[in-house]
Amino acid sequence: MDVVLLGSTGSIGTQTLDVCRMHNIKVKALSANCSVELLETQAREFLPEYIAVSDEKYYHDIKTRLSDLNVKILCGDESVCELAALKCGRVVNAVVGFAGLLPTLSAFRAKNSVALANKETLVAGGELVMKALEENGASLLLIDSEHSAIFQCLLGAGGNKFSKIILTASGGPFFGKHRDELKNVTKAQALNHPNWNMGAKITVDSATMMNKGLELIEAVHYFKADPDQVEIVIHRQSVVHSAVEFEDGAIIAQLGTADMRIPIQLALTYPKRLHCPAKRLSLTEAGKLTFEKPDDDTFCCLKAAKSAIKMGGNAPCIVNCANEAAVSLFLNDKIGFLDIGEAVNAALNDVKFISNPSLDDILDTKNASEDYVFSRFKQGEI
User: Fold this and answer.
1) Cα–Cα dist 301/190, whole Å
2) Side-chain half-sphere CA neighbours of 221 within 13 A
3) pLDDT over 70 (residue 381)
């Protein structure tokens, strides 16, 4: 099998290459946004046929660096879509944010199998993505540890339907805090996740609980669930990655250590399970496991995501793109931590709602949501 890896220099991308290295999986293509030094190192090790840099200003740099290799180098956002459409065993989409949507659709049109780490694809695209998946006879496996866990719990269901999905959340670094305690949160504090080593954007999303809201929306679309069938539970130990309840009340859960190489590897090798060097889980060492309800009032991003998936249409896209804009401002020290949630909720109320959006509507919604957040902060209205 060969792999096209989109977003190779990020956290999921580098761990995907760990898996490829372990099992001698051929890497046909790599894409990145701007980390040209790491991309060069990856290219020299894995010798892909294609390289793409989405940020065009890095094209000449990477082309010069790899001039001695027999590799075709592309640039621009469309180049990532070109790689996604290459004939291959699996496309791994580890692109960060809304930018992952169009490459996923390109992969489906090429009837490629996709291993998806980009949750924004299903959050923003939702019904359009699932329709494209079915119409093109493509396949889709999710890399998120929670959705991988749900998928694994359902493997032995024998066709029996679930009554509830239990989506676990670590609670991030600020679990148990109230709003007045989060007014002066720093970027460093928000990026200090207690259990997982992730990229900056997803780590901030975990701190605001938006990450779990996005995963709820993703689960509704992928598992064809009603929003009320998905229960979010705070599980600080990150041992139970998620669970499924069936009609008879039985609950089946998937447990493991907090190592993303486990769900990544399963998404690449399914239905086979191969050896993985991740630390084995010892239940006796894990000890006490706790489960608590989330605080939607303090972590209002989660409340916005729940409202958005019940509204449907382009509402999930609004909260997703407003969040991306607000998080980028926070990471650039332009706004405070609590401003993120306020911006997301304001956008959900004010950006135009479309009940049955086309792809063009989704793209317009992205721009409208980002413009809304940037303009309101610029004007000091939030």
Assistant:
1) 15
2) 29
3) no
